[in-house]
Amino acid sequence: MVELVVVVVVVVMVVVVVVVVVVVGGGGGGVVVVVVVVVVVVVVVVVVVVEVEVVVVVVVVVIEVVVAVVVVVVVVVVVVVVIEVVVVVAVAVAAAVAALQYQYLRMIKWEKVT
């Protein structure tokens, strides 16, 4: 995109210079006008390129921020999932231990009765 803008501006600059030289003629005034036109066009090209580069840099920074936020969200989701798995395993172990204790107490009670 930047290259296309630069090419278009350079072509316009060349056309303007040729028109100015043809219209004004070959005198010193024509040379001054051509130099002024060339300087203005070069400044415009530089400003356009710099603005495009600034926009590109801003877009890159925004993309980096979005990627960082996505990474943080993924890490948080992974941590939450790990915590949930640990809680589920802990509850399952606690339920198994409680069931074993209950069976043990029933066995002891049964032995006392017999």
List the main descriptive attributes of the protein structure presented here.
single chain; 114 residues; mainly alpha; rod-shaped; transmembrane
Structural account:
By secondary structure, the protein is mainly α. The protein has a domain at 2-80. The protein contains 2 helices and no strands. It has helices spanning 2-24, 28-113. Helix 1 (2-24) packs antiparallel against helix 2.
Question: What's the helical proportion of residues?
Answer: over 70%
- Round the mean pLDDT to the nearest integer and report it: 76
Care to count the β-strands? 0
Shape: rod-shaped
SS content category: mainly alpha
The SSE order reads: HH
Count of helical regions? 2
**Rounded to an integer, what's the Rg over CA atoms?**
39 Å
Biggest sheet overview: none
User: Which strand-content bin applies to the residues?
Assistant: under 5%
Terminal-residue CA separation: 93 Å
Low-confidence stretches are none
